[in-house]
Task: inverse folding
């Protein structure tokens, strides 16, 4: 019998239960995948709490995993049992085994471990659409990345630095500042002790930035707008401190005809060719050494509740991986 972490009701980490489950057998176009490593992402806490409601309960949490193909359904081509694959967006990854459509899987290349792949795919593809598609970052850009020592932040800082940009990043402690600096963030700013708005004004001579990447939400949104140059782009892609309250869009005009987007990864990898090309670029940079994947901590899958507590308390750094 297989096991999975399920919720039967929404709430705090204590609602996570270690349940016996039966993944079933693959139907047409599906694969039975045996997980070897599972990525933890902040959106998992939103699903658990009910901030982002799930279609039905009980439900298995998680949206990112790595494993071995165990069984193929009818019509699946290009895969065979034993293949090492990963996926970035499909519900139910907090499980020992699961069914998944074959066209959502990407091959994991040699030289990338299962733990690395679980720690990097969803976060790395997020960094890809942030830096390569929403606002294509270049060598003349100075940019701000919030939560620079987090899973997405560490990858995004390295990637932006590789593209030649100067990165300002906010962090929660001196230890995280050192970590961010070691991963391409030239100017880490510690929350509560320093003003990132003042730092941006100092570094840009008051001109402001072309783009801000904000995964924190409520606590940083207003000040992030004040960091932008006229015609700058505000990218609000998360809300770890809570959702941004309603505001008058006229504020964007007053602050310089700013652009605001609230993107999500699913729309940037909706086509398989987009998923494959972005994954190949990400894996290529990791393989070349341009991006190093920092796994800050691992937990047994059955201890997912503690992993959630630590993530929400901002006690984690880098990526967190759950091991079945």
Result:
């Amino acid at each position: 019998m297989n096991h999975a972490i399920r919720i039967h009701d929404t709430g705090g980490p204590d609602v996570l239960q270690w349940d016996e489950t039966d993944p079933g057998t693959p139907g047409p176009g599906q694969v039975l995948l045996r997980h070897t490593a599972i990525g933890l992402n902040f959106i998992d806490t939103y699903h658990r709490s009910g901030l982002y409601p799930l279609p039905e309960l009980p439900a298995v949490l998680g949206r990112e995993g790595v494993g071995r193909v165990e069984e193929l359904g009818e019509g699946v081509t290009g895969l065979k049992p034993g293949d090492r694959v990963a996926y970035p967006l499909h519900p139910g990854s907090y499980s020992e085994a699961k069914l998944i459509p074959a066209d959502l899987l990407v091959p994991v290349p040699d030289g990338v471990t299962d733990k690395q792949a679980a720690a990097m795919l969803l976060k790395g593809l997020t960094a890809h659409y942030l830096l390569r598609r929403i606002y294509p970052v270049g060598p003349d850009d100075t940019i701000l990345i919030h939560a620079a020592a987090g899973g997405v932040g560490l990858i995004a800082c390295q990637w932006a630095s590789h593209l030649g940009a100067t990165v300002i990043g906010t962090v929660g402690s001196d230890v995280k500042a050192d970590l961010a600096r070691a991963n391409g963030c030239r100017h880490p700013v510690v929350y509560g002790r320093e003003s990132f708005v003042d730092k941006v004004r100092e570094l840009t001579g008051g001109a402001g930035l072309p783009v801000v990447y904000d995964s924190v939400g409520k606590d940083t949104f207003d000040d992030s707008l004040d960091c932008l140059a006229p015609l700058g782009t505000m990218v609000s892609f998360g809300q770890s401190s809570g959702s941004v309250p309603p505001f008058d869009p006229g504020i964007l005009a007053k602050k310089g005809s700013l652009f605001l987007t609230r993107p999500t990864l699913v729309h940037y990898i909706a086509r398989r060719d987009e998923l494959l090309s972005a994954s190949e670029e990400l894996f290529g940079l990791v393989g070349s050494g341009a991006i190093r994947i920092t796994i800050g901590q691992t937990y047994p899958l059955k201890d997912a509740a503690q992993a959630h507590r630590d993530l929400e308390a901002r006690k984690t750094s880098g990526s967190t991986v759950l091991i079945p």
